[in-house]
């Protein structure tokens, strides 16, 4: 199984949205038996909480389930377990890289690094902006390109 971990700060807004959107894409393309996604936060404030109501409302509007998602914090073990760590912004990518130390594995990139000619490099934090629609558009495009890359790299 190829394993993908989406990472943001609180694991209640952006990364659970990416997890739900990506898992929905996997299901629809019949790749859910080859690739699996999870999410976590670099912060610990919201451990055990379901996604933010803004994320839940947006996903409901798009008919994408986020049942059973609860916030957790990134651990060192995640670096062993996951093949791709996909951070929502530079700060979170940097924090995961610090945890990884000198290890060359796994691949740690920002979600929007996968999108050619993207206007922004970081997914803005809707916890502060309140704009969940903007986040959804970026997350959806990022997940689509990420999936294309993973398929190409793994001949799927
Ligand atoms: P997220 O958003 O990283 O997309 O889940 C945040 C959620 C909570 C906080 C910050 C960002 N917080 O400071 O509590």
From TrEMBL:
Superkingdom of the organism of origin: Bacteria
Reaction catalyzed: O-phospho-L-tyrosyl-[protein] + H2O = L-tyrosyl-[protein] + phosphate
Domain Phosphotyrosine protein phosphatase I: 2-149
GO MF term list: protein tyrosine phosphatase activity
Catalytic center residues: 8, 14, 125
EC numbers on record: 3.1.3.48
Cross-referenced Pfam families: LMWPc (PF01451)
SUPFAM superfamilies cross-referenced by the UniProt entry: Phosphotyrosine protein phosphatases I
Protein's name according to its UniProt entry: protein-tyrosine-phosphatase
Native source species: Bacillus sonorensis L12
Species classification: Bacteria, Bacillati, Bacillota, Bacilli, Bacillales
């Amino acid at each position: 199984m190829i394993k993908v971990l989406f990472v943001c700060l609180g694991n209640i807004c952006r990364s659970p949205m990416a997890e739900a959107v990506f898992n929905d894409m996997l299901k629809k393309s019949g790749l859910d038996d080859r690739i699996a996604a999870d999410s976590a936060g670099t912060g610990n404030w919201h451990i055990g909480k379901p996604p933010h109501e803004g994320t839940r409302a947006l996903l409901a509007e798009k008919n994408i389930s986020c049942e059973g998602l609860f916030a957790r914090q990134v651990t060192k073990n995640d670096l062993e377990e996951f093949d791709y760590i996909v951070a929502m912004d530079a700060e979170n990518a940097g924090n995961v890289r610090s945890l990884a130390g000198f290890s060359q594995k796994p691949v740690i990139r920002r979600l929007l690094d996968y999108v050619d000619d993207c206007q922004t490099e970081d997914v803005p934090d809707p916890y502060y902006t309140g704009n969940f629609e903007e986040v959804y558009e970026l997350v959806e495009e990022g997940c689509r390109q990420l999936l294309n890359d993973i398929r190409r790299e793994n001949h799927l």
